[in-house]
Write a structure and sequence with these properties.
The structure is a homodimer of 444-residue chains. With 444 residues, chain A is α/β, with parallel strands linked by helices. In chain A, 36% of the residues lie in helices and 23% in strands. Chain A contains 17 helices and 16 strands. Chain A has helices at 15-28, 39-45, 62-71, 84-94, 106-109, 112-118, 132-146, 179-184, 203-206, 232-235, 254-264, 281-287, 298-306, 313-320, 336-347, 391-408, 423-435, and strands spanning 3-8, 30-36, 52-56, 74-77, 97-100, 121-123, 150-162, 190-194, 197-201, 211-215, 219-225, 243-251, 356-367, 373-383, 416-418, 441-443. Chain A has a seven-stranded parallel β-sheet, with helices on both faces. The longest helix of chain A is centred in the C-terminal third of the chain and has 18 residues, at 391-408. Chain A is globular, with a radius of gyration of 23 Å. In chain A, 48% of the residues are buried. The mean pLDDT of chain A is 95.
Chain lengths: 444, 444
Amino acid sequence: MIKNILVLGAGRSSAVLIKYLIDNCEACNWHLTIADAAPENVRTNFPESNLVRITAFDASDVLQREKEISNANLVISLLPPQLHFPVAVDCIKYSKHFLTASYLTPEIAELDQQARQKGILMLNECGLDPGIDHMSAMEIINRLHNAGCTILSFKSYTGGLVAPESNDNPWGYKFSWNPRNVILAGQGTARYINGSVYKYIPYSRVFTDIETINVDGTGTFDGYANRDSLAYRHHYKLENVPTLLRGTLRHSGFCRAWDIFVKLGLTDDSFVIEKSEELTYAQIVRSFLPSSLKHRELIDAVAYLCDLPVEGEAMSKFIWTGILEEEKSGLKNATPAMILQHLLMSKWKLEPGDKDMVVMQHLFMYMNKDGVEKNLVSSLVVKGENQQYTAMAKTVGLPLAIVAKLLLQEKINIVGVHLPVIKEIYEPVLEELKTEGISFTEIN
Amino acid sequence: MIKNILVLGAGRSSAVLIKYLIDNCEACNWHLTIADAAPENVRTNFPESNLVRITAFDASDVLQREKEISNANLVISLLPPQLHFPVAVDCIKYSKHFLTASYLTPEIAELDQQARQKGILMLNECGLDPGIDHMSAMEIINRLHNAGCTILSFKSYTGGLVAPESNDNPWGYKFSWNPRNVILAGQGTARYINGSVYKYIPYSRVFTDIETINVDGTGTFDGYANRDSLAYRHHYKLENVPTLLRGTLRHSGFCRAWDIFVKLGLTDDSFVIEKSEELTYAQIVRSFLPSSLKHRELIDAVAYLCDLPVEGEAMSKFIWTGILEEEKSGLKNATPAMILQHLLMSKWKLEPGDKDMVVMQHLFMYMNKDGVEKNLVSSLVVKGENQQYTAMAKTVGLPLAIVAKLLLQEKINIVGVHLPVIKEIYEPVLEELKTEGISFTEIN
C-alpha cells in the first residue's frame, strides 16, 4: 500500500532529510510531498517525479494545510517553531503521525491524551540537539542503570561549528544553522544542577561561566550552559541526579570574545536603534559605551569596558568582525541584534566548498555496582560534505527520516506525545545512524 | 451644579489626593466616590458622609465600571497601569475627563481624536515622576526659549527616598512607592542622548554607568538613567537638543551595592526558583554563584564575583539586607525578584513615625541670546509628614487633585490626550503646589 509523507518547510538543513526520503520512495512504496513557501528553490535541488511532488505552501492557509495533512500518512514539520502547533492540531484531527526536531512546547504536550486516542505518534526534539543528544544519552543511561550503576553527574554539550579544514577565521565559527538563534543564544537565565545545588546563570555571565571541553583528536572547546537543563531530569529518568547540565560548544576562545558583544549590549533584540540605517557599525558601538569613555579611542574604550587587553585574542576576534568599521549596515528600524546578525552573516558565511562540523560530548560520572566511581565520555564528531549536505543537515534530518521510515514500516508502534528517549525509538535510529557515519566514540 | 468625582483605586500614595478632594467637596460643590477593591481599608482613614461615598470596586466588572464612570464628571485612575485602558475607553464613551499619574501608553495616545470630539481631557503622567518633573521642566524650557536661549543639555533626576532624620539603614532607602517597581527598576535597555550621540545602557551596566548629583543642603546622590529618555525630546519641544537624560536618584553608594543583586541575577523575574520555599536566602545566593567558586566562603565568593572588597561599603550594604542569612523566605513558586522583594520589604519598611523624602533636580546647560553658555539648576526637596502623608503621596496626589479642581472649575479648557507640558495646565498647578510647600530652588 502506498504511504504519503508530507514534509512542511524545506529550508536550511532539510537537504539530507529530503534526499533520504526520495532515495527510499520506490523501495518503500512512498509518495513524498514537499510543501514550502518557496517551491522553486526546492525544485533547483530536487527533481519532481511521479513519486515526488513539490508544492507552494502557506502555513497560514488553513484550507491548504488541512488538505495536505489529510492526504498524508505522516507529517514532518520543519516550519518555524511557532507554526508547529496548528499543524499538530490538524494531525490530531486527521489521525496522522507528526514528527519535528523542535522543542516540545507545553501546548503540544497537552495533546498527549488525544494523540493516544487517535493512535498516532507526535515525536518532538528528534533532530541533533535536541534529538541525537537525547537518544545517545538515553542509551548510555539505560545501559548504566541496567548494570546497577548510579549516575552521579551527566553533562552534555553540542556544537554546530565549522570543520578545521574550512576554518579561515579567528572565531572558528560559521553559520550552519539559524543565525538569529546564534545571536540571541543564552538570553534568559540558564538553569542546571551541580552537586545537588540548583544553579542559575544570568545572561550577563553565561559566556564567562564556561567549561573547557576536550574532544580527542578534534580539539578544545568552550562549553556554555543552555537555558533549562532541569526539565531533562524527568525525561532522562534522572530525577535525583546531583549534577545535570546541557550546554553548547564553541571553539576555544569564542565565548570570551562573544561576551564583548553581550557586555556592550549589541545582542539586544528588544528595542530599535534610532536612525539605525544612517549609523556606521563604529557609531553604534560608540552608542553602547559609557559617556565617561567618550574621549578614548573606540578600541581602547571597548577593551577598558570589558577589562581586556587591547592586543589580546578576544579583542582581536571582536575587531575582525568589522564592528569597529565606519561602514553602514543600511538596515532601517533595526534592533542591535539585527545589526549584529547582518554583519556576521557576511563574515561567518559557509562558502560553497566549506565543510561544517557537529561535535557532541556526553560526560558521565557514575558509581558502579561495586561502589567504585567511574567516568564515561562519549563523543561524536560529524563533518559535512559541502555547503548543502552539511553535518548539521545530516544530524538534524536523518533522525527524522529514519523514524519516519520505521513508523511507516510499523517497526515503531508507540502512540502519544514523546521525545526520542524510548528504547523502541532510539535503538534502531542510533543503529542506522552508524551506517550513515554518525557514531559515538566511548572512553570508559 | 454638583460635580461628581470618581477616584478608582485608593492604595499606596492616595491619601493626600483623597484628603485634598474631601477638604474641597463642600466649597466646590463636589460629590466624591472612592472605589477600591478593599473599601474597608479606605474607611479606616476617611469617613463617609453625604458628600463622600466609599464603595467596593472590581475593575474587571464591566457593568459596575460603566455605571460608576457614567455617573461621574471626572475620573482619576490610580489603578495598576494595565487597568487604565478600559477605564479610558469608558471615559470616551460617556464623555468624562480622565486623569492618571501613569505613563502614557500608545493605546491611550490613539484615543486623542475621540477625546477631542467628545470634548474631554485625558491627562496622563500627572503625578511626581512622571508629572511634576514635566511641569517644572516645561516651565523652565519655555522661559529659556522665550528669552531667546538655546538649550544644550537637559538632565532631570528624581528619587523617592527616606528623609535623613528617618534614615537608620546603610542604603539610605525605604519603600515609599511600589516595591516591585524598585526591584525591577532599570530592566530593559536605557536610552538617552549625550552630545548628539544616542546612548544605550544595557541592564547589566545601568547601576554602574551613573552620575553624581549634588543637591545643596540635602546631600550627594547617585543618578542612574531611566528606560527611555528619547521620547521626551518631542514632548519637551527639544527635538534637536544634543543632550537629554531622565534618571532616578538614590543615596550615594546605593547603586554600586544594588549592582551586586543585579550581577548575581537576584532581580530576575522571568523564572521560578526550584523549591524556593525550602531554600534559605544564603542557599539562593549560592545558586547564583559560578560553580568554580563553590569552595569559597559565601561572602568572599560574592565579593570576588563582583570585584569588590569584602570589607567595603557596597558589600556591607549587601550583607546588611540579610541576604546571606540561613533563613527561609518561605515563598512558594517564587522568582528571584519576588524573594528579594520579600526580604527588602521587611528591611526597607517605612515605620509609622518615619518621614520619606522626594528629591528632584533639573540640570540645564544653555546658550543665552548673547551666545554665552550658562547653567541652571533647579531642585526640589519635599519631606513627608508620616507613614501615610508621605512626600510621595503629596507629590503624586496633589498635581492630580489640583488639575481635577481646575478642570471642574473650567479654568482648564483643554481637550484631547495630553501630558502636563501645556502652560495652561502646568502654570496654575505649579503655583498652587508652592502653597503646599512643593517649590523649586533655582541656581543660575
